[in-house]
Design brief:
heterodimer; A: 290 residues; mainly alpha; MetI-like fold; flat; B: 333 residues; alpha+beta; Rossmann fold; OB fold (Dihydrolipoamide Acetyltransferase, E2P); 2 domains; five-stranded antiparallel beta sheet; 19 strands
Chain lengths: 290, 333
């Protein structure tokens, strides 16, 4: 992009893609905004009318909303903590030379390729089920009462399932970051008298800071909108014990046929996601600058 | 104190023996340079001394104590790496303070030592910068600073100047030599550059394929190389080697004569030849002279000499400075 001429040409050529992306985003957003100010229930077709902020008032005063908000945050934070701590440990382990390294690395990445509905069903029926599940069998083997995970601790179970899916992603990114660490730095630290723990805290962890930031940002985007795992396991229940914001909007618009209320919820979710994004960039964004 | 003794030290990676059993003594306060072509095992030898690699058999003693199984941090040696290996996320101050912090030293004492080292190395105004904001020479000095604050028994340098440009290299060479005069600590220095070896060393160890070819002071190696390898490696430009009939006149399989020990004349001499390429440096002139039946002889003449490509000249080697070698390449005395 050296000359004025080539800059103008670059803008011209990039503009169709930008316009397409812009339209792709603006049209649904505008429609959601429009619906959120309408009284629009699928059971009463042809009765649509402008209602002002009524939809928002109902959505924000719904006790399920605060529960859902809390569950969303718990889910995001829980999964982030588990995947990053677990990811760092796994990356440290996989960075060691051992026999069969290649196969083990592929196995570790495998969960990431299983689609969310499938992995949630596998967990629900083969692991967490209180009658046939693996954990129930193990409990019975030791003479214990099987624990009904999805009924007793629904949110924790979902956090576990989602963590299992995202752990490979975190491990992969952190492993590549760890492999890019200059070995001479570790040797220098060793000569300087740093033991394994000090080498980890003073050399490896600062080196991983950027990769950890990337993992947090990317995972947060996806974790705010976890849906399939909840739908196939608990249906948001018991009660609203495992309902997050995404699931609440689904309930509102597709189970209660209230498109207006659901749209209002969608707009609230967008605003909340942006607040989270601003906080994240404030807190850890500086790690991305070189 | 910093006396390091290697006793039958051997290193093998699997089946491949990179360092056959080797004995070496490095006296306290000595500046020892390991020199050799790349891949000769000089860096490996340094890492064995540092403890970053385990030795396969033999013994390393530091100040008469067996250090073979002592971890690197406990050996009391400090190392300066080729890539400097500075910690990029720490300021210069924290980099230099790191070994002291790891030793659990009192913060005020750390501060004092860091400031001392910084003033010795002219780093005082850079203490709060990150390594990424420094030039190559400054980074090099930070790496040296990190080594000297520990007050080690010996310094180990692993090709520390190879990432610097030519002018800076000459400067740093002087600074390291100066540092050695001030600290009087044992230094072991690895390089492939024989000029660095000649200018800095008290004692040079010439390595070739893991074996020690010769140990001695720079001038000893220059005057009396033990074999053809050392003769060819030490001295710049390289020694000329002549084999065959001409060598047989001197009762040798081959003879060697340094470019500075050949006289060139336009009238008379022992070998007649034709001048090829001449390199005019101002202070010296290096002429590559093609002599029939002998090959190309590089001749050094002081000052500016008017020789051109294709001129016919006569060469005379100084008899006293001819090195004679037998069939195995060993020097004949």
């Amino acid at each position: 992009m050296a000359t004025k001429h080539s800059r103008a040409a670059a803008r011209l050529m990039i503009s169709p893609a930008v316009l397409l992306l812009l339209g792709w985003m603006i049209v649904p957003l505008a429609m959601t905004l429009y619906f959120s100010f309408q009284r629009y229930n699928l059971l009463m077709p042809g009765m649509e009318e402008f209602t002002g902020f009524t939809n928002y008032r109902f959505f924000l005063t719904d006790p399920a909303f605060f529960a859902a908000l809390l569950h969303t945050l718990q889910l995001v934070l829980g999964v982030l903590v588990i995947t990053i701590v677990g990811g760092v440990l796994l990356a440290l382990l996989l960075d060691q030379p051992f026999w069969g390294q290649g196969i083990v690395r592929i196995l570790v990445i495998a969960p990431f390729f299983v689609m969310p509905t499938v992995s949630a069903l596998v967990w629900k029926n083969m692991f967490l089920n209180p009658v046939n599940g693996l954990f129930a069998h193990i409990a019975k083997f030791f003479g214990l009462q099987p624990y009904d995970f999805l009924a007793q601790a629904p949110l924790a179970s979902i956090i576990g399932i989602v963590s299992w899916q995202w752990l490979p992603f975190a491990t992969l990114i952190l492993l590549t970051a760890l492999q890019s660490l200059d070995q001479e730095q570790l040797e220098a630290a060793e000569m300087d008298g740093a033991g394994p723990m000090s080498r980890f805290t003073y050399i490896m962890l600062p080196h991983l800071a950027r990769a950890i930031t990337v993992v947090i940002l990317i995972q947060t985007i996806f974790l705010l909108s976890v849906f399939a795992e909840i739908l196939v396991t608990t249906n948001g229940g018991p009660g609203t014990a495992s309902t997050n914001l995404t699931y609440l909007i689904y309930v509102q618009s597709l189970l209660q046929f209230d498109v207006g209320g659901g749209s209002a919820g969608g707009v609230v979710a967008i605003i909340l996601a942006n607040i989270v994004a601003i906080f994240l960039m404030r807190m850890i964004g500086k790690n991305l600058e070189s | 104190m910093g006396r390091i003794t290697l006793d039958k030290v051997r290193k093998a990676f699997g089946e491949v023996e990179v360092i056959p059993p080797l004995d070496l003594t490095i006296d306290d306060g000595e500046f020892v340079v390991f020199v050799g072509p790349s891949g000769c095992g000089k860096s490996t030898l340094l890492r064995l001394i540092a403890g970053l690699e385990d030795i396969t058999s033999g013994q390393i003693r530091i100040d008469r104590e067996d250090a073979t199984d002592v971890p690197p941090a406990k050996r009391g040696l400090a190392m300066v790496f080729q890539s400097y290996a500075l910690y990029p996320h720490m300021s210069v101050r924290k980099n230099i303070a790191f070994p002291l912090k790891m030793a659990g030293m009192d913060p005020t004492e750390i501060d004092k030592r860091v400031n001392e080292a910084a003033s010795v190395l002219n780093l005082a105004q850079y203490l709060d910068r990150r390594p990424g904001q420094l030039s190559g020479g400054q980074r090099q000095r930070v790496a040296i600073g990190r080594a000297i604050v520990r007050e080690p028994k010996a310094f180990l340098f692993d090709e520390p100047l190879s990432n610097l440009d030519a002018a800076l290299r000459v400067n740093m060479r002087l600074e390291i030599s100066e540092l050695h005069q001030t600290l009087k600590t044992t230094m072991i220095y690895v390089t492939h550059d024989q000029v660095e070896a000649m200018t800095m060393a008290d004692k040079i160890v010439v390595l070739h394929a893991g074996r020690i070819e010769q140990v001695g002071s720079p001038l000893e190696l220059y005057r009396t190389p033990r074999n053809r390898f050392v003769a060819g490696f030490i001295g710049s430009p390289k020694m000329n080697f002549v084999e065959g009939a001409e060598a047989a006149k001197y009762d040798a399989h081959s003879i060697g004569i340094r470019p500075e020990h050949v006289d060139m004349s336009r009238e008379s001499g022992v070998w007649q030849g034709r001048v090829g390429v001449s390199e005019h440096l101002g202070s010296d002139t290096f002429s590559h002279v093609h002599v029939d039946g002998i090959g190309t002889i590089n001749v050094r003449t002081s000052g500016e000499v008017d020789v051109r490509h294709g001129d016919t000249v006569w060469l005379t080697p100084t008899a006293a400075n001819i090195h004679r070698f037998d069939k195995e390449g060993l020097a004949i005395r």
